[in-house]
Amino acid sequence: MAESGADVKPKLQDEIRAQGEIVRKLKAENGDAEKIKEEVDKLLALKKLKEDAPSSKNFVLKCPKGTKDYTPLQMAIRESVFNTIITCFKRHGAETIDTPVFELKETLTGKYGEDSKLIYDLKDQGGELLSLRYDLTVPFARYLAMNKVMNIKRYHIAKVYRRDNPAMTRGRFREFYQCDFDIAGQYDPMIPDAECIKIVTEILSKLELGDFVIKVNHRKLLDGMFAACGVPDDKFRTICSSVDKLDKTFWEDVRTEMIEEKKLDPEAADKIGKYVKLQGKTVNSACYHTYTTNFASYYTELSTRESSKVSRVLLYRVIYEGVLKGFTHDPSKKKGEETVSVGSVAGGGRYDGLVGMFDPKGRKVPCVGVSIGIERVFAIMEARAIAAKSKIRTTETEVYVVSAQKGLLEERLKLCRELWDANIKTEQAYKANPKPLTQFQYCETAGIPLAVIIGQSEIENQFVKLRNTVTREEKNVPRDQMIAEIKSELEKMA
Amino acid sequence: MAESGADVKPKLQDEIRAQGEIVRKLKAENGDAEKIKEEVDKLLALKKLKEDAPSSKNFVLKCPKGTKDYTPLQMAIRESVFNTIITCFKRHGAETIDTPVFELKETLTGKYGEDSKLIYDLKDQGGELLSLRYDLTVPFARYLAMNKVMNIKRYHIAKVYRRDNPAMTRGRFREFYQCDFDIAGQYDPMIPDAECIKIVTEILSKLELGDFVIKVNHRKLLDGMFAACGVPDDKFRTICSSVDKLDKTFWEDVRTEMIEEKKLDPEAADKIGKYVKLQGKTVNSACYHTYTTNFASYYTELSTRESSKVSRVLLYRVIYEGVLKGFTHDPSKKKGEETVSVGSVAGGGRYDGLVGMFDPKGRKVPCVGVSIGIERVFAIMEARAIAAKSKIRTTETEVYVVSAQKGLLEERLKLCRELWDANIKTEQAYKANPKPLTQFQYCETAGIPLAVIIGQSEIENQFVKLRNTVTREEKNVPRDQMIAEIKSELEKMA
């Protein structure tokens, strides 16, 4: 079995042991001296090999930089967050797909601009050149072009990889989850776009992360603002990349970068500063009026007045961002007034040209989508769970089978089988003769609501003792009514 | 937003467009000739860059060798198989963890013997040397040692990576899922082992893959058999690796390899052949009698007599294998009698020494576990779904909102919002004025059970038409009773 866990045994250790036995046997049999020497040499060579192999002594026991294990507690939080998100995606009729964790290197080439340097490449071990996926959007576009899919509404929840500087406590990793929802297809303007924002609204509300705001913007509008501020045309891109830093950096630092590094006229920089401080106010732009009106009205129909959280509604080819207010970094504040934080938990927009880059005939499939930055959500949820000292169970065990005396292992096994076969989540001690107290303590620590207790007299009289872990109440239940009784107790607790 | 899907726009294309505008503007303004030339040169340089980049024309549109995308249909099958498996793991009280897709290279070093050549390494881009995980067992052992976990019952479902020769139609991939369940901790002999086999039995039964057999074996017993057949001690390992090939290769090919390549006495090879054909019969070995008896009795208690499928019960430090009878390759048959097939879908065993290899103090944590070879199960399920022509839905949409006339987009949006907010899975067309027939056809194709239809008269009289997609029955429902009526209809259908 290639997949077998048994593959994994320390093979070298095994080989040394086997070789040792050969030597011992030969010696015991007073075997041929030359043969013995030969086998001893083999043994020594194997031992040398083991010494040369990295031993656990000087071994660094860690996860790769920027990555982490998920503990059972973190997995329980992750499962509950994913459930909320997947329920929302399915409520909107989405299918799901999956793609390999790596792509042909050339599939990713030319898609990420200067961020390409953050792509993980695989070593050339012969065969194709591969890279780990950097996001789920490019693999999605490759999938659409490859399978000639002209329209689909799909979600994809999977890990992506970026050789970035990690900031683990703020939920920034080199391996992290993306939860993407995208609508591909030639549709009427703004209808799928408005639904994407509705989805972000629903998810951020259901996750109960506090107040949030969804910012809607468009690159061309930013360009218009730059022109009005007197930024020369050829500085648009570079000044734009400075402005993009405002969610992580203070305005005064961005201003310095613009003036000193990018040689922008300080007067232009200060004008930009005024716009930046216009947070939440609509910047009008007549030429995009129609789109604006459509989008705003579609989105309004999708949202009740109270839940409408879109602060800026601007125009077609939109870019979205969902920001948690409780965690927002206000770039207009001065340094020291507030720490830089992690408000942005969702982003998205249109990418109408991407599929065409893959299609052999350049056929376009317009796409719009959102991506939930779930690691930040995990970080917030986890901190909350710890702060609230709330007990999150990491198993769902309903019944623990307890033996009150020694020598009842086989009776316990029989009970377990009966409970498992009745679909009741059941555990027992893996000891032949566990102490009763240890078993009850395990129930309490693990939060298992019910215990089924057996002793010699229970077995002889064909009943079991059913114990409620919280109230510590016990009652005798005839053995043949045990399953029904447990199911009714569990129902009462639900 | 680093996570934004909007990142992904073809940046080079954007830059060319922006630069083009600069040139056009300069020319329109009759700008400085030298300045124009400078900007034109920039534009040409960008265009050259684009030409050099791999274009979609000569681009290979494919997944990396040995990997595949999952379509929505395959994902629906995968989700249902995972549900069955996870339900079983949870029924046995397991927690779950997750580890990164890559590990420090040295974490994997020395754990896989000659299979190490199948490990995917990442390119050295500065920093740590990394490799993709080869299975979930070594990362689990690393996790236990790193976090000083002395006992845990956990499952882990994730993809692993092997640079093996893929055989995609038979479910053998370079990227594939493993579903592992392991019990770590110092417990009494055979109790956790027997539960692992119970779990394989439960999962293979619930998946309804037909009759199966669970083979239980032990390496030392194989050694005993070799000794009895007259295999020299120093050929045990290599002959063992030949015998391991019997699940994929015919006996006569294995025999040839033993004699010609490994220089085994043909007489010894033929004796091995006789044992190999003893399939399903118990080979007795007195010294392991106690363990055998315990294991057999524990397992018997865990299984009803009818469902007991363990064909060979041998001894401690067991190796398991779950084989589907309908898909079994019988190595004793002659070539041509039957094609080599994919019977083995589960494997596992003890690995008591592995955690100690990671622990700085060499502390041991005994472990036993099973791994479900789920790709083969997917392959069987998928073939079945296709053969049965059964319609598997890839979405869960319950209601489709249909407009009977033009100009009702905003009314449809309002209805969708109301339905979504009531937790009803709802879709609508992304067109402003979709044709009624197109909308009804979509309902039928996608298997959406209900349609809510609105027209001008419905809106004026405050009701909706509710249509059953299968029976095509329609009824009028007052708008304020719509949600209740839909929920009751859906309940009837469930």
Task: Describe what is shown at a glance.
The structure is a homodimer of 494-residue chains. Chain A is α/β, with parallel strands linked by helices and 494 residues long. The first copy, chain A, is built from 17 helices and 15 strands.
- What integer value in Å does the Rg of chain A equal? 31 Å
Count of distinct strands of chain A: 15
Count of helical stretches of chain A: 17
User: Alpha-carbon distance between the termini of chain A?
Assistant: 42 Å
Largest sheet of chain A: 8 strands, mixed
Strand order of the largest sheet of chain A: 1-4-5-10-9-8-6-7
Largest interface: A-B, 155 and 155 residues
Percent helix range of chain A? 40-55%
- Which assembly state applies to the chains in this document? homodimer
Per DSSP, what share of the residues of chain A sits in E-state strands of 2 or more residues? 15-25%
Gross morphology of chain A is extended
Secondary structural class of chain A:
alpha/beta
Overall pLDDT of chain A? 83
**Low-confidence parts of chain A lasting 5 or more residues at pLDDT below 50?**
1-9, 280-292, 305-317, 333-341
Verbal overview:
2 copies of one chain form a homodimer. The first copy, chain A, has 494 residues and is of the alpha/beta class. Chain A is built from 17 helices and 15 strands. The first copy, chain A, has helices at 11-28, 33-52, 72-91, 105-108, 137-146, 191-206, 219-229, 236-244, 251-261, 266-276, 289-302, 354-358, 374-387, 409-421, 436-446, 456-460, 482-493; strands at 95-96, 102-104, 130-132, 152-161, 175-184, 212-217, 310-312, 319-324, 344-350, 367-372, 399-403, 426-428, 450-454, 463-468, 474-478. In chain A, the strands form 3 sheets. Chain A has an 8-stranded mixed beta sheet with strand order 1-4-5-10-9-8-6-7. A 5-stranded mixed beta sheet of chain A has the order 12-11-13-14-15, sandwiched between helices. A two-stranded antiparallel sheet of chain A has the order 2-3. In chain A, α9 packs antiparallel against α10 (266-276). The two termini of chain A are 42 Å apart. Chains A and B meet through α1, α3, β1, β2 and α5 of A and α1, α3, β1, β2 and α5 of B.
